[in-house]
Every structure is written in C-alpha cells, then in structure tokens.
Amino acid sequence: MGGCMLVFRTFGVVLWKMRNQVFTGNRGAVSLMVLVFLWFVGIGQVSGGEKQSFQEWLKGVRQEARAEGVSSEILDRAFRGVKPIPRVVKLDRSQPEFKLTFKQYLDRVVSEKTVWDGRRLYRDRRSLLEKIGARYGVEPQYIVALWGIETRYGRITGGYPVIAALATLAYDGRRSAFFRKELLRALRILEEGHIAVENMDGSWAGAMGQVQFMPSSFVTYAVDYDGDGRRDIWDNVPDALASAANYLSRSGWKKNQGWGGRASLPSGFSKAQVGAENRKTLKEWRELGVTGEGVDGPQSLRAYLVQPNKSGGPFYLAYPNYRVILKWNRSNYFAIAVGKLADRIAAP
To answer: What is the pLDDT of residues 256-266, one digit of tens each?
Structure first.
C-alpha cells in the first residue's frame, strides 16, 4: 500500500508542475499527462502485485500461440509436464566474463583433433559440400568450420529440451520479451512438423541442432535441402549444412574473397588505426607498412584491423566476410577461429 501511495504522490507532483500547460489547452501536455499517468499506474500494479505462477503465465503463452495458428494438440504435447529448469536460470544469471586468452581459446577451439576431423569430413562429404557451396555461393571449408566449432561436427548439440528451456528464460524475466518470441517461434516449428517435441533438444539458451540455430534463425535461414518436406537441422546433415550456407549467403557472403588474415604492424604504427571505423583497401594498408597474410588478398578489398586481446597480442585484417561471420556470433574470438579453422581444413 505504501508503494502505491508513493506512486500517486509522485504523479501528483508531476501533474502540479504541468497544470499551467494543461489548463491553457496545450494538447501535447495533455497527451503527455495521460501517458505519465498510465506509466505510474503500471508501476503501481507491478509493485503492488505478485508475479504470476508459471502455469498461469503459460496460459497466456498458449493464447498467443493459438492466435498465431499453433494447434491445441501441439501446445498440449509441447507443454506437457513443462516446469522451470533451475539450472537454466543459473546458467543465464551467472555467465562468467570470458576468461580465456585468445591463444587459449584458439588452442581449445581449433585443436589438432578439430582440424583433423574437419579435413576428414571435408574429404568424405566433398560431393555434397561442393553442391551446397555452388548453390549458395559459399566455400565448403567455411560451412565445415562453423559445423565444427558449433557442435564438434554434430557430436555436441546440447541436452536441454528447447521448449522447457525457452519457457524458463521467458518466464524468468531478465530477457523475457526476447525469449518469449523465441518460444513462440519454436512452437511454430513444431506445428510445421520439422521436429517432434521429444526430439527438439538444444543448448540451455535454446540454440538448436548441428548448427545451433535459435528458433528465429531457423525460421529465417533453415532449408529443406533434400526435399523431404522437413527442415531438419538436428539429424539431417545435408539440411544442417545447407542451412549454415544459406545463413552466410543471405547475410552477405562473397565467394572467393576470404575472411582476412594475420597482420604485422610496422614500428611506431598508431593504434588509433585499429577498429571497424578505419576501413582501408589492402593496397592502402600495404602502403602504410602493414605486412602478413592479411594484406595478400585482392588489393581493392576494404578491410579493418582487429586486435582480439585489447591488452596485447596479434592483429588481423578483417575483410567483409569477417563481418558476415560476426552476424552469426558477435565475438572476434569466434570469427577468427572460424576463419583459421576453415583455412586449415582447406589447406593442401
């Protein structure tokens, strides 16, 4: 009750300060006063009320999903026995700062085993990969590299039920709007029959399948490569790899331009030149004294300097395709790892 009184006292102060504007017929002030009133009432309701139970909250999700065309049968199956998963909340709340150095990250993600497995799969599935690459305009080694880094070529895809994980995060409240939308998209995927409820597993955050698409990415980029009527990124390797290629293609990938490479800076080089806002052609970087594999691409290509460890360590020149990889995962560590793994997979 005290919280509500404070809200309305505050509203009274605001109204008093706006009185002259309102009484002189200022329509903008009147509209603003109404909005302020509704905002304060909303605060009062939140502060004075209790959070909905999970089951009550689910009823609202069901209503929204039904309005979007998801059947009662799918909703019954999807939400049968669903409860919040405490482990998911803990993982979301306690994500640690990234503590690995860039070298440690590369050693772990682009390990000799990952490279060896990637080369073997690149060789064994060469025909399929070349067909996918030709259709979407993406070199096969980048498709394989993403597959390897995301799930170790389909071996580690996550063991959480996607519907329960997304419902947990949407109900929890920290990023409820985002995860509620992802949950509704996941329900649409079930309605369309691409995967059964019991087989829709993924990461604790709801990333799914061999290429770890969030439901929104699935809706936008997943493809039915083999034409069986389902976009199956879980168990169908051709669908999964073609979906990854489609993601890159539609995000702006340019074939035969590479991703970038290591760069060595001359003595006394200004660090102010580092960053995405300082794009220059490779020819211009070379004229500034920058050397290394990063300046060996097409000389008219525009690139910028990246230093993954801000406190020190190697520099890289990032080409336009590098920014496409960042759309997949906005981490310089990740983007460079994909590029380096792709280079090693395709190396003779």
So the answer is: 999 999 999 99
Domain spans of the chain, in order of start = 2-48, 52-250, 260-346
Q: Per DSSP, what are the bridge partners of residue 269? A: none
| pLDDT tens digits, 292-333 | 999 999 999 999 999 998 888 899 999 999 999 999 999 999
Compute CA distances 45 → 8, 39, 40, 49, 98, whole Å: 12, 10, 9, 6, 38
Angstrom distance (rounded) from CA 179 to CA 165: 9
Which residue in 109, 111, 182 sits closest to 146, CA to CA? 109
What is the predicted pLDDT for the residue at 26? Answer: 52
- pLDDT at 106 > cutoff 70: yes
What is the CATH topology of the domain spanning 260-346? Lysozyme (1.10.530)
- Check: CB of residue 242 under 8 Å from CB of residue 223: yes
Provide the strand spans (E) within the chain. Answer: 160-161, 201-202, 260-263, 280-281, 302-306, 315-318
